[in-house]
Design brief:
heterodimer, A: alpha/beta, six-stranded mixed beta sheet, four-stranded antiparallel beta sheet, 8 helices, B: about 290 residues
Chain lengths: ~260, ~290
């Protein structure tokens, strides 16, 4: 029951992924089909081991699928590319570079002249509210600021897609909520196709227009839930009955899955 | 196999207030007592004066012991006088210069080779498979044990001494460079790749800077090993150098000269170590320290 969208920005086509873990085979993804439309914000939520990060890594070109493929903007993914920006849970900032130089990293690889680089970096630092910390080193930043820097760095190379792998997973609850709001604000200003992996049900509902609930052993898509709340999402929406109803549905889909090894679906 | 957190040189040095065993206060001690007991932080000035007082006390102790008259032990005054003589006639400078020249040549050659080899081992699995057995094997042999072989095969000139020092510096530096490369976080490499970096760029822009703290620690250990080795190498066969001077002094039962040489070795070693430490602190300022 996946939506088939024409002109999908990302398309997972019958994606299978197997790993060998200490000698035994393990199916991380068992035939995943999913299309994400241009400009859509999709969250992927599920228990650990459901293959949600594997899916993201396949889309990022960081691993080779066992079979099937991922197509980004009508081009098959066959390795990492600046077309797909990735934001990691562990921030992955280069600790020896200042905030600005981190943001400029991808631009430097493109051999962009310094002036242009600076202008772009300034723009995105402003967008994530880090202008004052442009010359700081990552070690001087808080967790939330580090992740904002990583977001600016991903945006700077102008990717078509942002892949976010539990980006706020290491943050405290309050910072997390702020970061969600800020991310949506950024996304509204500079819209990109977003695939956001999380294990936080609230987060998945608040951010997305569509939630993909995954099941584990073997990893597969279990349910899709449309989140028909309008953007911009506000704090009061978080407390609304509609939000509660959607959250309950996602919760149900994630935590009350029929045991894959047992009962028939 | 590599430790997750890069080592910082400060961990192993005698920084004021750092290191040492902290004497945790017992649980039912008076509440006003500072939590880390005897390891209270002093200001730099206070710490320095404690250091100086301790050294002064040590010298006074030495003087007392020699004054009581332990057979043959020279006192501080005697040693300082001899130091003055050796400085005046240029021997001390010549010996120090000769030893330093050997150390720096061997050390430079050793690290110059160790860094690329360590990178190769860390980055290419095949290279690691080829090189590692040799490194692991030679690492277990003290460089000094190579001296007889080096003298037999290379004669008694400068070559065998520089070679042994080279080996000592190389072995300690190659291991830590290798560990540095292996320990580079995968996410950092992936982060560079998704920003468009190809293999070589990842290496230059991520692996090299990320492993630099390890390399610098390896260089410090390598310099220490080189310095320890040079003196021993000079004890066996050399026309000059601090080790040679001690060897000569030993023949004539000239204890003051041995003391002067030992002190010179200590001071020069300390200066070199501090210099590298300063360079290291400057280059790895970005590191998160705990």
């Amino acid at each position: 029951m996946t939506t088939e969208t024409k002109n999908a920005m990302i398309r997972f086509e019958n994606l299978h992924q197997e790993f060998t873990l200490s000698g035994s085979k393990f199916t991380a993804l068992d035939g995943v089909n999913l299309s994400i439309a241009d400009g859509e914000f999709v969250t992927v939520v599920g228990p650990s081991g459901c293959g949600k990060s594997t899916m993201l890594n396949a889309a990022a070109g960081l691993l080779d699928p066992t079979s099937g493929r991922v197509v980004v903007d009508e081009l098959e993914v066959d390795g990492p590319s600046p077309r797909t920006g990735v934001i990691f849970q562990q921030y992955a900032l280069f600790p020896w570079l200042t905030v600005r130089k981190n943001v400029e990293f991808g631009l430097k690889l493109k051999k962009m002249p310094a002036g242009e680089r600076r202008a772009i970096a300034d723009h995105y630092l402003d967008l994530v509210g880090l202008t004052r910390f442009a010359e700081a080193l990552p070690k001087e930043l808080s967790g939330g600021m580090k992740q904002r820097c990583a977001i600016a760095r991903a945006y700077a190379v102008n990717p078509e897609i942002l892949l976010m792998d539990e980006p706020f997973g290491a943050l405290d609850a309050l910072t997390r909520v702020h970061m969600q709001e800020q991310l949506l604000e950024t996304w509204t200003k500079e819209r990109r196709t977003v695939m956001f992996v999380t294990h936080d049900v609230d987060e998945s509902v608040f951010l997305a227009s569509r939630v993909i609930a995954m099941a584990a052993r073997p990893g597969r898509i279990y349910q899709e839930i449309m989140i028909d709340l309008p953007y911009p999402r506000t704090e009061s929406m978080r407390l609304s009955d509609e939000f509660a109803r959607l959250r309950a549905r996602v919760w149900e889909a994630v935590y009350h899955q029929p045991d894959a090894k047992g009962a028939d679906e | 196999m590599a430790p997750k957190n890069p080592p910082t040189a400060a961990d192993t040095s005698l920084v004021p207030g750092g290191g040492g065993v902290s004497t945790e206060a017992p649980e039912n001690s008076p509440p006003r007592k500072p939590r880390n007991g005897g390891n209270r932080k002093f200001s730099r000035k206070v710490m320095l004066s404690i250091n100086l007082a301790s050294v002064a006390a040590g010298i006074i102790g030495w003087w007392l012991v020699s004054a009581i008259g332990i057979q043959g032990l020279p006192g501080p005054v005697e040693v300082i006088e001899r130091g003055g003589e050796l400085m005046a006639n240029g021997t001390l400078a010549e010996d120090s210069g000769a030893s330093l020249a050997r150390v720096l040549t061997g050390f430079a050659l050793g690290t110059l080779l160790a860094i690329p080899v360590g990178f190769l081992m860390g980055w290419y699995t095949v290279a690691r498979g080829i090189i590692e057995p040799y490194v692991q094997f030679f690492r277990t042999i003290p460089p000094l044990a190579i001296i007889p072989l080096a003298i037999v095969t290379m004669g008694i000139g400068e070559v065998p001494k520089v070679f042994v020092i080279f080996l000592a510096a190389f072995l300690s530096c190659v291991i830590s460079t290798f560990q540095g490369v292996v320990g580079v976080e995968n996410t950092l490499i992936n982060a560079a790749r998704v920003l468009g970096a190809k293999s070589f760029t990842v290496f230059i822009r991520v692996v090299v800077p990320a492993s630099s703290p390890f390399i610098l620690v390896g260089m410090r250990i390598g310099l220490g090993a080189a310095w320890a080795t040079v003196v021993a190498a000079e004890l066996i066969a050399a026309p000059n150098g601090l080790g040679f001077r001690m060897q000569q002094a030993q023949l004539y039962y000239d204890l003051p000269t041995i003391f002067v040489s030992l002190i010179a070795i200590g001071i020069l070693g300390l200066i070199m170590d501090r210099l590298l430490l300063m360079i290291e602190a400057r280059l790895t300022r970005w590191q998160e320290r705990r």
